Amino acid sequence: MAFVFAVVAGALVLFATERVPVDVTAIGVMVALLVVEPLTALLADAGVLAGRLYVLHEPGDAVDPVAVGLSGFASPATITVLAMFVLSAGVQRTGVIQILGAKVAALTGDSESRQLGATVGIVGPISGFINNTAAVAILLPMVTDLAHKGQTSPSKLLMPLSFASMFGGMLTLIGTSTNILASDLAGRLAIEDPARYGDLHAFSMFEFTQLGVILLVVGSLYLMTVGRWLTPERIKPRGDLTQEFEMADYLTEVVVREDSPIVGQTVHDALEATDLDIDIVQLIRDRRTFLEPLGAKSIRAGDVFAIRTDRDTLVELLDAEGLDVVPDAVVGEAELEAAEERQNLVEVVIAPGSELVGASLRSTNFRQRYDANVLALRRGGELIRQRMDRTTLRVGDTLLIQGAGDSIDRLNNNPNFIVAREVERPDFRKSKVPVAVGIVAAVVAVAALTPVPIVVSALAGALGMILSGCLRSSEIYDAVQWDVIFLLAGVIPLGLALEATGGATLLADLLVLAAPSFPPLVVLGLMYVVTAVLTNIISNNASVVLMIPVAAEAAVQLGANAFAFVLAVTFAASTAFMTPVGYQTNLFVYGPGGYRFTDYLRVGAPLQAVFAVVTTLGIAYFWGLTP
Q: Any transmembrane segments, and where (predicted)?
């Protein structure tokens, strides 16, 4: 038990600080639990320890600890979540969300109230039927464009987008991976000891929909009133991205003089020869504008370069390279978009699981790899416009990128990024809209109305997306957020170890002892609050794995309804409003909204308090507190 608690403590620190990616931490947890028994057996044989440590099973039973440790990969929860990612991608590829966005933009106009109402009203219901993380990734460009066209600050819409997706995720079993994982854990506990846990069982498709609807209504009213007042306008409503990123002092045009030492060199060689912080954004020659890739072009006298650099570096550059500033040059979005009729300037968000997380623009050779320039980087409310190539990238970082239309298309199709504004895509499979929507509806109906388990229904739906042509077979693996899959696979054995060693029982004992005179309703609320706080610090899936065995055990000791306590943990783990790191959707909007860390606490803490009360009372009313 002591060893497992040490692993839990180490995992919590790593989850909270993100010194390593959360999925790597989860796999590290799994490996630690797998190696401890054979390693301590060797030490016991050598006389160093009194005996081996058992953390995944009990001494003398016939259980294979390796099978238990690897069970997260075979868990129905893990497979269901994987299938749901494929289903969500199939819907996305049809372009149905973009069609919906165009109709919404026509109705909302420049009214912030209508834009906010449309954002909350769309993402909430959608998040009940496709994974809410995927829903935000799909809708983020639509909502950003909605703000742009209506001259509204995107800050006023993007945090509500994230929060409303969490409300919607609690409408059905498949709304969020947390629900699926909690259902699997509850079902396993019920099968292992039905006499002990009474009415505890896996969730059905619409098990908690009635409470989910109440929370969706309450949360939406909050966002439209108190939340709207509390949500800051961090990014001013501007139509020009260069103004939004405050690039006026960092973009200019220079012309190459006849006596310049770089005449005859390629652009690549000229850039390599200098250590100055400069990016060549575009080349203007003979009234034609050229974008990346520019590296192979030979520099001629009279060439005009649009460059990104600061004023001090510009002075050094002019002296060293034989360049002159173009008088009265203004380099804004209009000038950067002039090279082609297609969109050349976009914001992109570093997605969860991106291979760029933990790397830098320099180490990934971003310019050469994607034929695009990064003009600025926004991390929450912080703008970085100098030496960006040395900055270690994080999930949620927003890059202002300029490149040719083909380069923008590649970024839009790349799972490493979420393009934060709509890019016109000719490859949407609009004819497949009825098929994709029908497949999702069939998955829900089969799981809700027949004995077919949700994991089987979801896998069949994923296969249907491929066979019907909604999703190509080559797109399947890019559709899955593998960091979430490995996170689930890694943390599931941790919950099993807590049970096998008695750790869950000990934590439940301490919880019950801490509130001996409180009625079960108060302890239920306390369980919600503890889980919510934990979820705002670490992964929602990790918190549900840790807290569900404790909640079920605490209910047994109080003589209360174990299902009610497990449901409180599930709802709390799926609604993390107080930090940007508590839930992936909060990170999605952190950069594009220009938020500060404290903004989530300011807007989310009152909402979290309201949900604690409404959820606790709702569970007590609908399911009761007695077995």
A: 29-54, 66-87, 161-182, 202-224, 435-467, 479-498, 563-583, 603-623
Strands 398-403 and 372-379: antiparallel
Length of the chain counted residue by residue: 627
Could you list the residue range(s) of the whole structural domain that residue 385 is in? 345-419
Cα 186 to Cα 286: distance, rounded to the nearest angstrom: 70
Last residue of a domain, one of 13, 35, 64: 64
Residues 589 and 530 reside in one and the same domain: yes
Q: Are residues 96 and 154 in the same domain?
A: yes
Task: Please state the pTM of the whole predicted model.
Answer: 0.80
Other Cβ atoms within 10 Å of 287 Cβ, number: 5
Give the pLDDT confidence of 200-243 residue by residue, as tens digits.
999 999 999 999 999 999 999 999 999 999 999 888 876 677 77
Distances (CA, A) of 381 to 22, 96, 249, 495: 24, 32, 18, 37
Mean pLDDT of 170-182: 91
Q: Are the C-beta atoms of 161 and 589 separated by less than 8 Å?
A: yes
Is the predicted pLDDT of residue 422 greater than 70, yes or no? no
Q: Are residues 350 and 324 in the same domain?
A: no
How many independent structural domains does the chain possess?
4
Long-range contacts (CB closer than 8 Å, 24 or more residues apart) made by 506-514 = 506/1, 507/550, 507/553, 508/550, 508/551, 508/553, 508/554, 508/556, 508/557, 509/557, 511/550, 511/554, 512/554, 512/557, 512/558
Q: What is the DSSP string of 284-317?
A: EETTEEE-S--TTPBP-TT-EEEEE--HHHHHHH
Average of per-residue pLDDT values in the chain? 85
The verdict on residue 554 lying in a domain is: yes
Residues 230 and 252 in one domain: no
Residue 338 banded pLDDT, cuts 50, 70, 90 = low
| 241: in domain | no
Non-local (6+) Cβ contacts of 214 within 8 A are 614, 618
User: Same domain, yes or no, for 407 and 513?
Assistant: no
* Per-residue pLDDT at 342 exceeds 70: no
| Domain assignment of residue 382, yes or no | yes
pLDDT at 239: 61
Residue 70 domain-assigned (yes or no): no
In a shared domain, residues 358 and 409: yes
The average pLDDT across 259-284 equals 80
State the DSSP code for 250. T
> How many CB atoms neighbour CB 249 within 10 A?
11
Q: Are residues 139 and 211 in the same domain?
A: yes
* Model pLDDT, residue 516: 66
User: Which of the 8 DSSP states describes residue 473?
Assistant: G
